Amino acid sequence: MSAPSSPGEATGPVLSVRDLVVHFAGRRKTTVRAVDGVSFDIAPAEILALVGESGCGKSTIALSVMRLVEPTSGTILSGGEDLARLKGQRLRRARRRIQMIFQDPFGSLNARRSVYDTVVEPLLIHGIAPTKEERRERVNEALALAHLTPPERLAASYPHELSGGQRQRVAIASAMVLRPPLVVADEPVSMLDVSARAGILRLMMDLRDRLGTSYLFITHDLATAWVVADRIAVLYLGRVVEIGRSTDVVAAPAHPYTRALLEVSADDERLSDRRVAVLPGEAPSASKVPPGCRFHPRCPRYAALGEPEACRVSDPTLSPSPTAGEGHAVACHFPLGENP
Ligand code: SF4
What domains are there in the chain, each with its CATH number? Predict the structure, then answer.
């Protein structure tokens, strides 16, 4: 079976998100600005990580791409179609091209269904592989791809017989059985122990290399993003505040928020509630987005620079970073690496 795309084969992006906005009605007539104008592309065989604290909008972006939440405005282009506007049969067909892996490998698998029943389901839903033999072959291939071997034995097992890492491999096999060009992975390793985490990240990168699969990889942890992703987009209160090659963003962060994220490690207890507790000020709320730069109430640089007016009144847009890394952009009036 051939891959849907291989590195260098396709030229355009696999996914192109433009000016995505997702607003919800909040309590007391407030508007929750969960996603507030986000744009990014994902190239074939590229892993783009969306990184940020709980409530920054990263999971809402993932669910919008899957059309599991309705975008308020903006476009989500994939395969020449705007997913934000598709309905019915065309949306169902488009969904074949994008599969999702969820955070919880315990909750995402049905305890009463065998591994075979779970992995074969997408084939049945989309009417692919009409004969039982073909389906059995596709399921075994997908299990082998996810390093669940021997596939025949694993296919007959049930979730309670598997470790957390094996369950997540079943979820990956279930996503890969359709050979989608793009996989959306929402915190896929955050509930796994450290050794299982490394194995799942290696598997995802291996599938990218072998099949040309692209990923939209959602994580709260910049260190995990650095390990797995080609590029990183850092989100704060529904906006991308920094984007660039992973090495550039991690080695030379240009946004004060990115630097704060780097100062806490993945295993730091302070991250247990998924907030960057090293920052001053209240936890951010998408129903109370501050004016000007939305990060200014918590920004160490704003304080260090004597609270410049520009930060309070003017909303910074993404511009090339002073570090001049390729495609490295930052939304800050006084980015790091630039005087003063
Ligand atoms: Fe901080 Fe000002 Fe930059 Fe916002 S614009 S991140 S408040 S320095």
Answer: 15-330 (3.40.50.300)
